[in-house]
Amino acid sequence: MDDSKQLLFDMNGRLPALKYTLPMALQHLVAMIVGCVTPAIIISSIAGLNNSMRILLIQSSLVCAALSTLLQLFGITRFCGARLPLIMGVSFAYLATMQDIASTTGIATIFGAQIIGGTIAIVIGIFAKQLQRLFPPLITGTVVFTIGLSLYPTAITYMAGGSASASFGSWQNWTVAIFTLICVTTLNHFGKGMLKLASILLGIAAGYIFSALFGMVDLSAVKDAGVFSLPEIAPFGIRFEFSSSLAFTVLFAINAVQAIGDMSATTIGGMNREPSGNELRGGIIGFGLSNLISAVFGGLPNATYSQNVGIVSSTKVTNRKVLATTAAMLLIAGLIPKFSALLTTIPQCVLGGATVSVFASIAMTGMKLVAMQPMSYRNTSIVGLSAALGMGVSMVSESLSQFPEWVTMVFASSPVVIAAIVAILLNIILPDENRNS
């Protein structure tokens, strides 16, 4: 192995840009960019934003993901930023709750709740070591599993064309969605190298071309979009509302714990060591601060990206220059409205066909975490009751109709809140045979 290639495994090594840095950075980009922009496309549709504001929401989310990644890579103070090879992006974990907020109290409420959630994450970061014991893998696995389940209706709605579509449920929408899903699944299981890694991106590209044959693609938004524009301060407004903020408080607490898991997976898989206390604390504080900044500039909530953690763990490439190049690409893409406008032209059935596999993988990631623990009667009770109550109440939201409106917003808008609370309480209350022996 030549000396320059060896620098891939050195966090601070100075790599040749074209030979090693760019290809590895592209690998990280294709693994995360679909996940980063899809929530913005979905939320803009639910919130009823006009075309220019939809483009702006995608732009802001890309720019804020880039800034959040750079913050984690290099830090801004001794206490903020993990200084580890991590990629940050808009998280699907917030999607179900954001959909409910956007459709009831408006998109501005998302950013108010995000500020509260980011502040909570900073507090959790300060006390990370003390609070970590409340979230063992059994609890985080249950929550992640529930998040995946909660997103299935979104994927199916999009596969059918999107709820606002006049052709909702048409055979054309389902044909395109299934074609996209087949492409993604084929590449994921039979592709190798970059083909496998970029399976979702390539599947969307194939579905996009196929959908154009049905006249589903309208490029007028790209023609009208500008070439360059900077993010704006509070472009969608910021509004604080109690129930939304409470729901985000729980979600941010859960994602702070997931960040601990991702940082641990990064250092164990990529560096053969456990993360230090300062790295964990700085990473979670950076997670909170980056969300405060994102809220101010209209970027949706972000979190560490597990798929990129997987790349670092499998390749052992920990060089921060590689991931900083990925962040630079995100930043450039976010500053070009025409690129964001092109993303808004992707038909919803194509997004549905691609993201249903993403949501399935989220649920299965949760199941893997759960399966790491003994399947005792205690543990299966925690997982089963938490998921049952969380999913059950959210699917029958009218079951809380006699309660105050804020109760419905917090506990019925997304199954994650109830599932997390029930799992934590049961884990504390139910006797642990192993602990007593």
TrEMBL record:
Record's bilayer topology term: Multi-pass membrane protein
UniProt keyword annotations, A-Z: Membrane, Transmembrane, Transmembrane helix, Transport
Pfam families listed in its UniProt record: Xan_ur_permease (PF00860)
UniProt entry tagged with the keyword Transmembrane helix: yes
Gene Ontology cellular component terms for the protein in this record: plasma membrane
Any GO MF annotation of the entry: xanthine transmembrane transporter activity
Recorded family membership: Belongs to the nucleobase:cation symporter-2 (NCS2) (TC 2.A.40) family.
Protein name: Purine permease
Organism: Candidatus Ornithospirochaeta stercoripullorum
